[in-house]
Amino acid sequence: MRFQTSQQMKLGQQMKLAPRMIQSMEILQMPLAELCERIEQELESNPTIELTEIDPSLEDRSEESTSTADQELNIDPESASDFARLDDYTNANPDAAENTYSDSKMKRDFDDLPRSRAQAGERDAKMDAMASAPARAASLTDQLLGQWSLTDVDERIKVMGEVLINSLDEDGYLRASFEEIADRSPMLVSELDPSDADWELSLQAVQLLLEPAGVGARDAKECLLIQIDVLADRLGEERDDEITVTSEAIEIATRLVAEFFEELMKNKLPKVAAKSGYDLDEINIGIGLLRRLSLSPARRLVTDAPSVVIPDGIVEYDEENDRYFAYLSDGRIPDVQINKEYARMSADKSVPDTDRTFLKKNLSNAQWLIDAVGQRRHTLLRVINAVVDEQRDYFDYGPESLKPLPMKTIADRLGIHVATVSRAVSEKYIMTPRGVVALRGFFSGGLATDSGEDVSSNSVKATIQDLIAGEDKSKPYSDEAVVKLLKERGIEIARRTVAKYREQLGVLSSSKRKRLF
Description:
By secondary structure, the protein is α+β, with helices and mostly antiparallel strands.
């Protein structure tokens, strides 16, 4: 075997994405809230970009104003690539910034540069907003520790109880074993040397003394039994909630949970009746009480803040012309512009080279961000309008009328790449006459009906959901029954596909949906 080294020349072409191009794609992919945050960060870190003063009497952007803004940015709607202009800007001569940002009319010196609001003695709107923001809600652990600090227990139990509370999960369960908790608290072990009996006693104190009932349980079964015990202790007391407690209901519920929990969770009520000796009416009394209890008791103390969806676009119906049209709801996006004084300084030969280099770099970043935001607006609006045209039946008749729509169809129609369409619809929502919907939800594969027409998989899911919503809960449809009902509507689909769609919709199987009362 012989090894030999040599030098060769090879001519070839390679396509590489410039860093600016990658960042442009990221801007396109950002949802509205994230984009606003990105612009705010640039305003804080880049001195050459500033907010545009807007006349308060002007109305929010409409479809027409958006189109005008695109024209000002010299964006060609029929461009084969929406990012061509950004590429041209990236490859431009850096020295062109001197001509782009020069302004012979600007004659101010460094001392006359715009000062921040704080320097000018004005109130800072951001600081005012932060001062007016509501305080952060106390965490679950903080609330439980606050209750625990008021309990009258032995100091040894109190210290171990604090460790147990710090080990609870967001539902209030103690998932870790006593051995695992001890391993996480070596100092406690060395000082107190607790046994399993000590841990058990401390846990019982936590379960008994903390509210809501059920906190500190190790599993769902124990959680329910704790809550039932608390109800039994309070039997006969005046209650301000809607739970109706009787001794019969407590007795039945306790036995159902203690002896037949697994069968109960699988809704095998006839089997429970056969083993327990209760008839179905008695079982329903116990179940009626259990339905009012919580499997996640700690959630009552800490409520997760609902996720806020800000639609990027709005679709409305034009009755006069019988058409749907879209426009962007980008009024939240800060209007920014290049600071003209810094632009003038970047072209002023009397300014030190280091300062000019710094200004040119930041001016380039600022201009790129403005261009990228404008390009995002243009691309997103085109994609939304194309989707509205393709899915007209959805807006007229509802989700069941969704058509199969591959992203390639929209990409070919607009003359852009499929990846651009994918980024444009990622995490975007639009407000429509039928509610706020995810833009990506309009894209899906499809199935063929008996008539030869294509129907969207999302449409099939909507049909399945409607069928199950209207079923008799005492005799819920099996997956095979759903297949037959869909076939009657001209949709051929396999049972395993129905099961897959049902799971994606979060719908339980027919045995678990069945109710006997």
